């Protein structure tokens, strides 16, 4: 038997097909209902790191592989939204991604599209839950559409 030293990999679990179909129908309807005083945005965030992630490797027993580092691993988070109908994008860099920095991004969206009703499509990330409280504070500037699980 031959063995190798590897790390496991992630695979996508199958989503609920009915929920996906309902979401697709909902998005098609929304796209048809968009008027010039509305904007349809898909939004999300990503995390950028300026260091290599160490992977599993073979080494001599009792002698762990050492990788020199300078002691600082810089990172940033980037929030973004894309206008589904014309491809325009809006990006905002943040030191970290949390409810506070996501709220700052929502404020940026509100200022950028102050004259429009924003229809915002988000995934189900925990930091996106601040969205509902933001709606109340700004007298409902947007409509939320959540991706299916």
Sum this structure up briefly.
By secondary structure, this protein is an alpha/beta fold. 26% of the residues lie in helices and 26% in strands. It has helices spanning 17-33, 99-112, 130-137; strands spanning 38-49, 75-83, 89-94, 117-122, 142-146.
Give the CA-based shape. Answer: extended
Q: Please work out how many helical segments DSSP would assign.
A: 3
Compressed to H and E, one letter per element, the order equals HEEEHEHE
Q: Largest sheet, order of strands side by side?
A: 3-2-1-4-5
Number of E strands? 5
Global structural class: alpha/beta
Low-confidence regions: none
Strand content: 25-35%
What is the first-to-last residue Cα distance?
40 Å
Alpha-carbon Rg, integer: 21 Å
Mean pLDDT, to the nearest integer, reads: 81
Question: What characterizes the major β-sheet?
Answer: 5 strands, mixed
Helix content: 25-40%
Structure description:
There is one protein chain. The protein has helices at residues 17-33, 99-112, 130-137; strands at 38-49, 75-83, 89-94, 117-122, 142-146. Strands 3-2-1-4-5 form a five-stranded mixed beta sheet, covered by helices on one side. α3 (130-137) links the parallel β4 and β5. The chain has three helices and five strands; from the N terminus they run αβββαβαβ. 26% of the residues lie in helices and 26% in strands. It has 149 residues and is an alpha/beta fold.
